[in-house]
């Protein structure tokens, strides 16, 4: 279980403090899926980076299975069981896809194991295993490979920042099925940051973040009706309509 208590993250902008994550508290039980949504620039990705250890919180605490991991860096959090897929994945010149998947899995993967991971994100293994993780890959390809690295190893908590971004509909459908499989297995928590209605519909809990603060948080049954009945054109941070 992941428990977050009063988490805060601030930055200095031209000598003034700005709170990007403002005293946020929530929990995700084993096997639950939490979907975080809300307007662009509201603090969703920043929260994810603080949870993963990429950014250091200014206040509050993070517990993983009752262990306080607030002081852990990104390596220690990964070893403790937190997986994270960037919204905009980094590139690694000289690193092959197969090598990256093996590093993510923590062991040398067979070709069959690598192929299974690539198939889960809609990529043909024969075309990618020996490709380099560099500028020769498109943004959508990098996004899918980034997700595959998280799927390569079981985690206590897996965080996916806008997994639908840059992915075609066919690959997106395959990815949805994989998320559903993990959800049914009830072995790990999933946190998905998304504007996509199909992903939001999968959630056990939904949290809406705006201006660094939690505007709504609760079960899907409680939050979804309000979220999808808004008439302001601001639902899920999209101008002019729904997600």
From TrEMBL:
Keywords in alphabetical order, please: ATP-binding, Nucleotide-binding
Q: Can you give the residue ranges of the ABC transporter domain?
A: 2-236
SMART domains assigned to the protein according to its UniProt record, in alphabetical order: AAA
The yes or no answer to whether the keyword Plastid is present is no
Q: Which organism is it from?
A: Fusicatenibacter saccharivorans
Q: Which SUPFAM superfamilies match?
A: P-loop containing nucleoside triphosphate hydrolases (SSF52540)
What protein am I looking at?
A: ATP-binding cassette domain-containing protein
Please, which domain of life does this record's source organism belong to?
Answer: Bacteria
- InterPro entries attached to this UniProt entry: AAA+_ATPase, ABC_transporter-like_ATP-bd, ABC_transporter-like_CS, Molybdenum_import_ModC, P-loop_NTPase
Q: Does the keyword Manganese apply?
A: no
A Pfam family that this protein carries is ABC_tran
Single GO MF descriptor: ATP binding
Segments spanning the bilayer are: none
């Amino acid at each position: 279980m992941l428990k977050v208590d009063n988490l805060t993250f601030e930055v200095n902008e031209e000598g003034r403090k700005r709170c990007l994550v403002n005293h946020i508290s929530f929990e995700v039980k084993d096997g639950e899926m939490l979907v975080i949504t809300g307007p662009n620039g509201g603090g969703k990705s920043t929260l994810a980076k603080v949870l993963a250890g990429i950014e250091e919180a200014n206040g509050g605490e993070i517990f993983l299975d009752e262990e306080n991991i607030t002081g852990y860096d990104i390596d220690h959090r990964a070893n403790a069981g937190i997986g994270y897929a960037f919204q905009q994945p980094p590139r690694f010149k000289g690193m092959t896809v197969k090598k990256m998947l093996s590093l993510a899995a923590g062991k040398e993967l067979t070709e069959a194991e690598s192929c299974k991971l690539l198939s889960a994100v809609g990529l043909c293994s024969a075309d990618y295993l020996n490709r380099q993780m560099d500028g020769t890959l498109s943004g959508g390809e990098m996004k899918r490979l980034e997700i595959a690295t998280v799927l390569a190893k079981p985690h206590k908590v897996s965080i996916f920042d806008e997994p639908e971004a840059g992915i075609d509909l066919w690959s997106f459908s395959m990815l949805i099925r994989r998320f559903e499989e993990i959800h049914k297995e009830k072995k790990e928590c999933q946190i998905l940051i998304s504007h996509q209605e199909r992903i939001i519909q999968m959630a056990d809990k939904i949290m809406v973040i705006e201006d660094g603060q939690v505007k709504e948080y609760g079960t899907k049954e409680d939050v979804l009706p309000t979220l999808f009945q808004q008439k302001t054109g601001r639902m899920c941070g999209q101008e002019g309509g729904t997600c």
